Amino acid sequence: MPHLLHLDSSADLATSRSRAITAAFAQAWTARGDDFTVTHRDLHRDPLPHFATNEQHWPAADRLPGAQVPAEQDELTARIHAELLAADVLLVGAPLYNYTVPSTLKVWLDHVHIPGALAGAGTQPLAGRPAVVVSSRGATYDAGSETEGWDHGVPVLRIVLGNSLGMDVHVVQTSATLADRLPELAELKDRGVTEFEAAKAAARELGATL
């Protein structure tokens, strides 16, 4: 039974483009048949707790002697790992907030990026599984522009999901999402609309084929 883990992290519950694009993917996924199932975790509505101690970044066997980690924290991390391991495909809604991923998504990454558990050489049970990253960006970060390289969201996800966890990362991206709100970006409004429609189409295609 093919299973999708769908994560959203946008704080905009009404007009979020990342949420609209992940929804397009999820709808195409479930349209393939009743056996195509979904677990949806909304990291904004139901945020995960930050680690209580740095020792949570390590498996129990590798922690310093005497390390104190609340049992409920270990249990939560174990549930998050099980949820991810049960997924054939991972879908991540990742709007760009202040040039990086939302803090709610960063906490989820902290829970899954634990050396010796899901990440690291010789420990990649998720290797080869598809991960679809939906990136929405208020402005533009084109090659050769003054803001080239300011997007620190997608690179982080490529490193954690791709390099560390070994997943096969696909990126669906839309830019100029604030062009209809900010006067200084008004000339990018048409581009924003075009990229949004193209991103939804790309997400539907991936949802129907991965």
Characterization of this structure:
The chain is α/β, with parallel strands linked by helices and 210 residues long. The chain has a single domain (3-54, 70-174, 202-209), classed as 3-Layer(aba) Sandwich (Rossmann fold), CATH 3.40.50.360. It has helices spanning 17-30, 71-85, 103-112, 154-164, 189-209, and strands at residues 3-8, 37-42, 89-95, 130-136, 168-174. The protein has a five-stranded parallel sheet, sandwiched between helices. Helix 3 links the parallel strand 3 (89-95) and strand 4 (130-136). Helix 1 packs parallel to helix 5 (189-209). The longest helix is centred in the last third of the chain and has 21 residues, at 189-209. The chain is globular and about 50 Å long. 34% of the residues are buried.
CATH hierarchy: architecture: 3-Layer(aba) Sandwich
Class computed from helices, strands and strand pairing: alpha/beta
- Which superfamily, in CATH terms, is the homologous superfamily? Flavodoxin domain
Proportion of residues in extended strands? 15-25%
Helix content: 25-40%
Poorly predicted runs of 5 or more residues? none
The CATH topology, please?
A: Rossmann fold
What is the CATH first-level class name? Alpha Beta
Would you report the number of β strands? 5
Q: How large, in whole angstroms, is the Cα Rg?
A: 18 Å
Mean pLDDT: 91
Count structural domains. 1
Number of helices: 5
Largest sheet: 5 strands, parallel
The strands making up the biggest β-sheet line up spatially as 2-1-3-4-5
Distance between the termini: 13 Å
The helix/strand series, from N terminus to C terminus, equals: EHEHEHEHEH
Large-scale geometry: globular
